[in-house]
Amino acid sequence: MSKCRVINPVVVAPTVASVGLAFFAYGFSVVGRCVEIGIPQILALVLFALYLRKLTVFGHRIFQVYAVPLGLALTWAYAFLLTESKVYNYSGCSFSQRHNATAVLTPECQDRMATMLSCRTDVSNALSTSAWFRFPYPFQWGVPTFHWQTAVVMMVASVIASVDSVGAYHASSLLVASRAPTHGVVSRSIGLEGLTSVLAGFWGTGSAATTLTENVHTIAVTKMGSRRAVEFGACVLIVASVIGKISGFIATIPQVIVAGLLVFMWTMLAAMGLSTLRYSETGSSRNVLIVGLSLFLSFSIPSYFQQYAYDPSSSLPTSFQPYNVGAQGPFNTSSKNANFALNTIFSLHMVIAFLVAFVLDNTVPGSRQERGLYVWSKGRTARNEPAVVKDYGLAFGLSKYFNWVRWVGL
């Protein structure tokens, strides 16, 4: 017997889609700073991922599977050649002036400097200054501090991330032909995300940890859903993280190329969010109105809040200024901390999308099939099925320590 769920595809779809669409200001506005590099980056990704996706080399569709790394490598090499060919060296405007605190740049040189900073691969000196090996440790940047107004914002963001993760869990289970995750598996997974976020805070990463929805698309493209592949990839990343020269080498990627990659990645994120609607009745006028209203208000309401944040004298990049709403906004109570929390929360696209979709979907009448509610198995039933235990059981027999608690077991 299934239980009524309040988080379902009609809620997940606009919430996840708004996460990808919210960063449109960081897309072509950054790519346009160096179009001779940014546009080839986007075109290369489109060419590999769409036009050459069925082309095989030695029986493998390498262009479909490796569209992102291939596009990055080619454009990165192209940018390196332009830098070494001194295409971005201008008469009377030396790139070394940027590192000289006493140098005064002329207005003409300032314009050229902006181009050089966006196009060159030697903007960062991390490769030459980074150590070969560096081992991170807890509290390396000092003891974390606590401010309740930022904690409230982070808790709201965590709820949105959890909604995103729920959609990713179910989409992944469908791709690997497994049963949808049970209540306990979802609860356990979100709890582990919280644990890794705590560890990230101890190590001072500056951001929490959550499920990367784009990896669902990776599973669909590569047809690789093996745990061993994920474990191997994780080990490679851990080893790479302690080799400083690898990080320094990656830092040579121009910001324009990064923006071009993110245009592609955020596009997939938005598409993956909307594809969640396939579990519900997509032609239902109820669902169409809820999803459409959620997406529209997720841009319209934050736009109203973000107009208070524009500051021409701000040192923040233009693409990030709209999110600097905390200290100034329509909420103007006697409590500055409350103002910060409310102005920040309501300026976030994904928060508005989630709130509107959540309220409407759980108050507007609709059948279970129309809403796309998942039929989840009971924990006790799943516990007796070898296929479910194999797919969702923890390594090293750790599942037995969770199964006795129904809401985090199988």
Automatic annotation (TrEMBL):
GO MF term list: transmembrane transporter activity
Protein's name in the database: Nucleobase-ascorbate transporter 12
Membrane-traversing stretches: 7-24, 30-51, 63-81, 146-169, 229-250, 256-275, 287-305, 340-360
Domain of life: Eukaryota
Bilayer disposition of the protein: Multi-pass membrane protein
GO cellular component: membrane
Keywords: Membrane, Transmembrane, Transmembrane helix
